[in-house]
Amino acid sequence: MTYPMTLDWTQKKVLDFFREHVTRGTLVFRADDRHEIVLGDGSDPRATMTVPNWTDTLKMALSPDPGFGEAYMRGGFDVVSGEMEDLIRVLRLNFEGGHSANGFGLFIEKLQSLKFQIAQFTSVKAASRRVRHHYDIGNDLYTRFLDPEMQYSCAFWDDGAQTLEEAQNRKMTLTTQRLKIDQPGLRVVDVGCGWGGLSRFIRRTTGAEVHGITLSTEQYNWALERKAELPDNFHEGLGYHLLDYRLFADANEGKYDRVVSVGMFEHVGRPQFKTYFEKVGKLLKAGGRAVIHTIIKPRPEFTSPWIDRYIFPGGYIPAVHEVIEAAENADLKVEASHFHAGLNYARTLVAWRDRFREIADQLDPEKYDTEFKRMWEFYLAGCINAFDEREGGGGMRVGQFVFTKPGYRFT
């Protein structure tokens, strides 16, 4: 094929590489203002990108994850038509599976797997450091794109919600209903409470005594500030603690009627699954109840190296059976499993990205430089693709699992 004269030799080799591999969907390379090279079969998904240089392409080819995200972060290419998640979907359709078919690729894959397993062991000290990496970036960022209650987890749009605020309120309402706070005087602990929005919601709507725990200093300080703004009758009976869940459980055995945890289980690491549920059980009184909200994958697989390096160090998204088996091995009983389509989280992420784009230029450039903004765009786009249930998407969804602690309360 004849390429535009504006392309150098390395860029032509890049296009040869993609031409050989892209046969499904539509990938368009914009060479300059007048020339586009169209690859694929013309079907959806479709996206247009600029032509990267040979160095970036070589890195992407040898190590698509993290190479692809790193190239974008550093300005190696741009998406000029469609969204980044569309480009990711095209590439997944054509490159999924990487190089595992050959011996060297399989060797690299096994090394990555071993590294991942070692990194999954999360001490109390490591957990604190990993949480700070993401959640202590700065409240000046999170307040700009989250809803007023600072809910940083999947909103539930599948009941007619039209705005992010409505969908997040729906999520908190349904989560609270599943906790069954059905009598006065119940005590609730919110494990991994974030900025405390769900804790405040439960306190306001049920009157239960609620304690939230987090490892993020920024989240903790925010939660205390919002608590101080509540009326006295809600202010009392609401507490926040800057402490690891394992230490908190050891110091509060059998003191709570309910445990709720939204978006925290993904951070504990696979080797700690049983420990996590043992601590949940330790917090609960006999007959107590827990609602655990987590992202779930279609099958067990290790975390994206790019996500692990830049966004959520030490994180792991479980498959359904991994959640249930870990809880049952910790002597908790499964009462119910509720699943919410991935579209809910994809729509939430799009709302966050739209808001982020609106305020990106207002952020402090010394804290949030161009590379950070491109990283954040790639992170949100990658997650949008992860919840796409179509071919080329990750097929993730959200589960809320209800567990009970065996035994009875005698009064």
Question: Notable features of this structure?
Answer:
alpha/beta, 17 helices, 411 residues, 11 strands
Written overview of the protein:
- The chain starts with 8 loop residues before the first helix and ends in a 7-residue tail after the last strand.
- It has 17 helices and eleven strands.
- The longest helix has 18 residues, at 342-359.
- With 411 residues, the protein is an alpha/beta fold.
- The strands form two sheets. A seven-stranded mixed sheet has the order 7-6-5-8-9-11-10, with helices on both faces.
- Helix 16 (342-359) packs antiparallel against helix 17.
User: How much helix, percentage-wise, in residues?
Assistant: 40-55%
Largest sheet: 7 strands, mixed
The overall strand count is 11
Count of helical segments? 17
Structural class: alpha/beta
Q: What is the rounded distance between the termini?
A: 83 Å
Which range does the strand content fall in? 15-25%
What is the CA-based Rg, rounded?
A: 23 Å
Low-confidence stretches: 98-120
The pLDDT mean sits at 89
Inertia-based shape: elongated
Order of helices and strands: HEEEHHEHHHHHEHEHHEHEHEHHEHHE
Family: Belongs to the CFA/CMAS family.
Active site: 383
Pfam families: CMAS (PF02353)
GO molecular function, one term: methyltransferase activity
